[in-house]
Design a protein that fits this description.
The protein has helices at 2-31, 38-46, 60-68, 81-92, 127-134, 149-153, 178-182, 207-213, 223-227, 252-256, and strands at 102-106, 159-162, 165-168, 188-192, 197-199, 233-236, 239-242, 262-264. The chain has 266 residues and is of the alpha+beta class.
């Protein structure tokens, strides 16, 4: 009896408690089980699972649910592009919608050869850190800090720091926008890949000040504005900007820019 009370009974008690707890867990899982929508599961599987939010939803599953409910079209996944749009349309039994390939573009060319640093930053090598504490390290306060926060955010290895400035490889870029979100100076934009001309500068300093801080800066001279046959480029607040609804991609503005901050892209 003593052996039973000391050893066997405690084991039996624990076994009964364990069995009861297991039964309750099984019962609870069945009562509170959430049914999986097979359509949503198929749509989510067809997406690249970048969870970038570029589609306007919290992630791939959120977008899949929106497509399944008819709330969202099938061509909003930028990283997936035309291939993902076609798969989603096939699953939904609808016609494939047209997609526009987009890429990231860095509106800065203040490389080490063109501008200078105000000091040597010895803190955490981060664009966000140097901007937060010192408003950047370069003489151009709106330029690329070159620490690669954007490159660290990119899942496709599509952006690298070259000569102190972030440069995008359009062939690898999925237009997810993570690099743009990571840039504290908001120098990176997502644009249609077929737009062949862009301004590789974000400075809005007056011409004299812009010349003093960067050899590649826009100085607001308006030569590009005068040379554009389509009236697509204008200079406001010392900065050239392009209206892509008018731009023909002729490249006249790029050829005329004395600072070479307007570029014709491949």
């Amino acid at each position: 009896m003593e052996i039973f009370m000391s050893y066997i009974l405690p084991v039996l008690i624990f076994a009964v408690i364990g069995a009861a707890a297991g039964g309750l867990l099984v019962l609870g899982s069945r009562i509170f089980a959430v049914e999986t929508d097979e359509t949503v599961a198929k749509l989510a599987e067809a997406l690249p699972n970048a969870n970038c939010g570029a589609c306007g939803y919290s992630g791939c599953e959120g977008y899949a649910k929106a497509v399944a409910s008819g709330e969202a079209p099938t061509n909003r996944c930028k990283p997936g592009g035309a291939a993902a749009a076609a798969k989603l349309a096939e699953i939904m039994g609808t016609e494939a919608l047209e997609t526009v390939k987009e890429v990231a573009f860095v509106r800065c060319n203040g490389c080490k050869d063109a501008t200078e640093e105000r000091y040597i930053f010895t803190g955490t090598p981060s664009c966000a850190a140097v901007e937060r504490f010192y408003n950047g390290k370069g003489t151009c306060r709106t330029g690329c800090d070159g620490y690669g926060d954007c490159a660290a955010a990119c899942d496709n290895d599509a952006i690298h720091i070259v000569n102190g400035v972030a440069v995008v490889d359009p062939e690898k870029c999925g237009a997810c926008g993570k690099c743009a979100a990571a840039c504290p100076n908001h120098l990176i934009v997502i644009r249609p890949a077929d737009q062949r001309v862009d301004v590789r500068c974000s400075s809005r300093d007056p011409g004299k000040a812009a010349r003093a801080i960067c050899q590649n800066s826009c100085i607001g001279c308006k030569i590009c504005e005068k040379k554009c046959p389509a009236g697509a480029i204008t200079v406001n607040d010392n900065h050239a900007s392009i209206d892509y609804s008018k731009c023909t991609g002729c490249g006249d503005c790029a050829a005329a820019c004395p600072r070479k901050c307007i570029v014709t892209l491949k």
